[in-house]
């Protein structure tokens, strides 16, 4: 009689990818491109007395996004909406208050894919072509992807009409919308006006920004070998936990990693909201230029995606076992850079 | 598992009488103490401990394949059974009863040769031999 | 190779040391002495909200979290540990997109 | 006692009897001699299974064989020239049939009432040709949302005519159908309806059915 | 046959209906349990007196032994929470069952759970008792012998085995019984068709679904089974509970 495992249990695993290199040909940008829906951005600036204004501004002004409650998905497929917004500029959207592991979720990626993650029942009564999800081997969840930008997706075509009236059967969802107009003279709030005319209740949401300075902090210098301890210290610092000050304390045996220096002031900035990868790109450029003109030991940028998004990294399916996080940490200093990618595991649960 | 129980103070013919249920309870209490509710629950299915032979102080413990690790990790900590100070030594862990009994037989064979070499007179040898072999392997575990 | 848990304790307010002590006793209760020696650190403790961030090694994580769920009593009165977020990357405990109100 | 061939040819009807008499006298045991004369009127059949071989009469063929039907392609319905609105009186006819089929029950039973089962059995045994079926859920996805009047029902498929005057074949196994009658909505789980319509009225369906795909 | 979604918790005992059910239901909904079942138990002992006094009085009083299901008035704030009615029958002999099945209230329940107390009762549940959930009493050791053949017999009939974590939190002997039975299910039938439910009596025992998944790992389930224990198997139980006798079923418009 086989008896169950009672000694060492395996924790649910996740995937970590680390990439290092010289700052000249860094490809942080294509990692940023991969994560389309970003929720939380935090920056750590050691040894800075005054944070330059343009860092705080990049993610604050004209970064509003809109929350539209109970929208039918057929609105998003209607052709003049596609021509007006999805084809021009960068349009991303995400359904909120829905859990990826037990409800149906929706998200739109910048390259014009409308992706739905549906349970078995809704998929069967929806009637659009979809693939069973990789994580559930008993076919409990399906992913339907509709390419909005493909040229045969026009009214009059059989595929378009069928999608439009089949999407009517889906229940209404609350959406987050973030649109970046192609060129500057169009104001980004025209998306809100479009939905306002259709009598949906639209809310403007501003990303909330926090800044904090900590004094006399022992900061480890950024070396290429112990990446994990460095990232762990970043977490400790961002959460303001005690960084192993005095001797042996009963509570925590954590010590800052060894080669560290003492700095007077360390700044911590955090934005929370709904950001597109272009906005994160702009922030990274500003940080690189800031690093060039002021001499700094290093600068770190942490971006966390949404945990209930249908597609994690560049159209790869995302799932939520006990934690659904996908994010990356970028650390730069004058010569080299490091990207620490953290993704959900790819194994389907048996 | 075949276990030898050595009491602290040696009786003259070094035999030790322990009723099996108390030996079972002692083991269970120690596992509960060291491995908590989870350990006690894990081994309960198919766990039996029987004290076989007073003279050779051998006991046999049966457990399922996974939880047997719990028992081997607990045995050195058992100090006191039925209010007698003892120390446990695991002699043999085998997968089948036959293997255990085969081991016990040649274990006793070795014991007899030891004792015979020390004793000179003939009739003492014969008495010890048949006392040790009284143990019959057909006794099944409860 | 570490796992981080964001835990809050329901019902009475309790100091950091007592908090860690109660976790150790509940582990001992469920998994015994051997498991009570699991090395875990209460990295951050916020007495106002009674919310803590705990760091535990990856192979003890399942037993640790199991004993947290099975802990029901503190000094006779019923209590409960609510685990808000769990992640192998400490930075992701900064915020949870599920509970964020836009 | 060996019989020579002459005995047989010379005997006429009554000499056969005499010959039989002697035969019995010799063979039968002494004690039964007295009853011998009572035996004269009983007839003995000596040939065991002789059967009257009549001429086999072939029954006249009522209907074309399946091969002939295939040649005349009666089996397949024509694909084109269906008129959806022409079928409306067939739909009315079917509704009429269903109504008097169902008004045997004064009050339509709910799940708790005892006569729920036999209400269902009458439904299961009724005919579906002429019903207005829509597919609400189905494993193969492009069947979902189809609607039409059932024109032919086979063991594994419904053949319906859609309002756009096309003949569509719907597979029963992976899908769930509904049809409405006045104010009641009926759902049919296809995978339990895989029975030839002729047998459906006879066959007893008594298994536990999971309402799931 | 509406679709049921989200995480499932099939054992909210009727004791917590008495004291402020609103915030328990609210807390359950926020944690993610979108479908719960209020559990009413019939114990065989209290049935005894009702039968015996029936004989004494020689009058067949039509008192229905099955309590009528609690109709869940829509709880303020979480009307989305789907509330089912579950009946748990704990019995030692077979003849009680025939009386229970005949009572009109019996058919009003969505889910039927069987809790056999003796070997003969266990044999009866395996062969011909239409139950959806097979539960056990955590406070006493099971007095029936489980075998691999009987386990698979129940699995084919679509019966799901229930493990409660509520009593495991309260008391250590219950915890030992629950863990031992869970490991027994693993060793007999590779813990197939297992659902984990709360069995809570007060609001302190509710745990969020991801804790329960982690607890499933401790009970000897694999990670896929642990996730199914509170998600897909719950849906199968609901489907098994609402089996129809004919392939045509109907609803008022």
Task: Name the assembly state.
Answer: heteropentamer
Shape of chain C: globular
Counting helices, strands and paired strands, the structural category of chain A is alpha+beta
The number of distinct β-strands of chain C equals: 6
Structural class label of chain C:
alpha+beta
Number of individual domains of chain A: 2
The strand line-up of the biggest sheet of chain A is 7-8-6-5-4-9-3-10
Q: Helical amount among residues of chain C, as a percent range? A: 25-40%
Order of helices and strands of chain A: EHEHEHHEEEHEEHEHEEHEHEEE
Largest interface: A-C, 48 and 36 residues
Give the % helix of chain A.
10-25%
CATH fold node name of chain C? Alpha-Beta Plaits
Name of the level-1 CATH class of chain C: Alpha Beta
Rough shape of chain A? globular
Q: Unreliable segments of chain C (pLDDT under 50, ≥5 consecutive)?
A: none
Q: Which strand order does the major sheet of chain C show?
A: 2-3-1-6
Main beta-sheet strand count, sense and barrel state of chain C: 4 strands, antiparallel
Q: Report the end-to-end length of chain C measured between terminal Cα atoms.
A: 33 Å
GO cellular component, one term (chain A): ribonuclease MRP complex
InterPro entries (chain A): RNase_P_Rpp40
GO molecular function, one term (chain A): ribonuclease P activity
Pfam families (chain A): Ribonuc_P_40
List keywords for this structure.
heteropentamer; C: alpha+beta; Alpha-Beta Plaits; 4-stranded antiparallel β-sheet; two-stranded antiparallel sheet; 2 helices; 34% strand; globular; D: 213 residues; alpha+beta; SH3 type barrels; 6-stranded antiparallel β-sheet; RNase_P_p30 (chain E)
Structural summary, described in words:
The complex is a heteropentamer of chains A (350), B (142), C (102), D (213) and E (253). With 350 residues, chain A is of the alpha+beta class. Chain A has helices at 28-34, 53-58, 74-77, 79-86, 120-126, 158-167, 190-197, 227-238, 277-293; strands at residues 14-22, 38-46, 65-71, 90-96, 105-108, 113-119, 131-132, 141-147, 173-180, 202-205, 208-220, 260-275, 299-305, 327-332, 336-344. Chain A has two domains: 14-62 and 208-344, no CATH class; 65-205, no CATH class. Chain B is elongated and about 55 Å long. Chain C is α+β, with helices and mostly antiparallel strands and 102 residues long. Helices cover 29% and strands 34% of the residues of chain C. Chain C contains two helices and six strands. Chain C has helices at 16-36, 61-69, and strands at 2-10, 40-46, 51-57, 73-74, 77-78, 80-87. In chain C, helix 1 crosses helix 2. Chain E has one domain: Metal-dependent hydrolases (TIM Barrel). Helix content of chain E is 42%, strand content 20%. Chain E has a seven-stranded parallel β-sheet with strand order 1-2-3-4-5-6-7, with helices on both faces. In chain E, helix 6 links the parallel strand 5 and strand 6 (160-164). Chains in contact: A-B, A-C, A-D, A-E, B-C, B-E, C-E, D-E. Strand 6 of chain D pairs antiparallel with strand 8 of chain E, so a sheet runs across the interface. Chain D: Its main location: nucleus. Chain D: Keywords: Cytoplasm, Endonuclease, Hydrolase, Nuclease, tRNA processing. Chain D: Component of ribonuclease P, a ribonucleoprotein complex that generates mature tRNA molecules by cleaving their 5'-ends.
